[in-house]
Amino acid sequence: MRRNDGRFNGRIIIVGASLAGLRAAETLREEGFNGPLILIGDEPYPPYDRPPLSKSVLTGWLPATNTFLPQGRDLNAEWLLGVPATHLDLAQKAVQLADDRRISFDRLLIATGTRARPWPDASQAALDGVFTIRTLDDGARLHQRLAASPRHILVIGAGFTGSEVASVCRELGLVVTVTERSAAPLAGALGGAAGTVAARLQRAYGVDLRCNTTVMALEGDAQGRLCRAHLSDGDVLEVDVAVVALGAVRNVEWLQHAGLAADARGVVCDGTCRVFDANDIVTDDLFVAGDVARWPHPLFDGQLLAVEHWGNAVAQASIAAHNMVCAPWERRGHRHIPSFWSNQFGLNIKSVGLPTLADEVVVTQGSVSERRFVAVYGHKGRVVAALAVNMPRGLDVYEALIEQKRSFPPHLNAPDEPKPLRVVAAGFPVPGQPTHSPIATATGPGPSTPPEERDAAAARASDPRVPSGPLPL
Q1: Which of 432, 142, 147, 113 is nearest to 292 (CA)?
Q2: What is the pLDDT of residues 243-265, one digit of tens each?
Q3: Cis (ω within 30 of 0) for the bond into 52?
Q4: What is the dotted CATH code of the domain comprising 12-57+68-115+249-330?
Q5: Which of 11, 61, 192, 460 supports an S-S bond with 470, CB 3.0-4.6 Å?
């Protein structure tokens, strides 16, 4: 359904009523769309902000109910909350809901995001004292338990969420052990070289950090309360709280048998956020945005990127919404450069680009020992990412280097540039090894990936010259 000016004005459904869904709805109205608009969400709450849940909500500084996102305008939308979508009927252009309702659409935006990866043993996951941290209810429940001063907390997985939870525990004066299957915390997101810095920091703050270690089993008492954890190194810990921080699972199950290019890695779309079907044909009426999307980024060899972060959700949802209603000749490409941030153990950590693509890293400003530095990541001789620790203002310069595909290592002649520059292996674990999400990662070749890149990862993994562990920054 198009108006005389070529713009769309039929019924739009947004499946996913979180940050990306809200931003898409706002953009649709800002773009002049005045047709019927329906938002479907599996949680009973209006959109809220997730990053504070593992930080200020756990400390008690911010109540969980104060994380609701402001809505700057009347969206004139129908909200169907607390009822998940269970199936997409592409032929009939309808969404099936868990309460058996069928909602028809003319255009659809998939913004179902991710959920916390659960503990693999359901009976152990059900023990009183075992938590994940993803939803508003998760944050409220875990805050309540931490406020009761448990004797010993176990955090399973040392990615950003697990590390932030551990930081909060130490801030509250609680005893905490962190287990991580990789050689260092944050290794899956920032590489082992940067992870060694995080490891020293966590131990300096009193965290009992166990790297190269997994949790084999969680044990409960006769009343069903968590009491012990059995580790792969043979230790048995007496614990009364376990926070499972094993990364995220993309919410794509409802798309099974829908005939789309969707799997556990996400929903594949082109640069304009239009979804590919199972025959690799782009659709004009289905779009995707946020954590659940995979799209080809022109700066990263056409690899299909999956990004689990606030900034990308906002940017991609805005682009998708614009493209849903604009005239075909007005479509825009989603070229957002991934970025993320974290506050933990007294550090402000910010990154831009795609660190997980890198094979080398070098400190270009500041001092690691002073916990104030910038590190740049390189892949095949060019800059692909930068990491700033307690130096957030300098990242704009490094983002420009990424966009310009500048050579690695860069020589910026900054007053605080180490001399000489010391390039080391980035030290990313082999795929599937970390116990946490990488935040932003390449998930496989896309249509524009050069042929020589398709087998490059396997070749690097089998090269005997590649060290098994990274050198520290």
Answers
A1: 113
A2: 999 999 999 999 999 999 999 99
A3: no
A4: 3.50.50.60
A5: 192
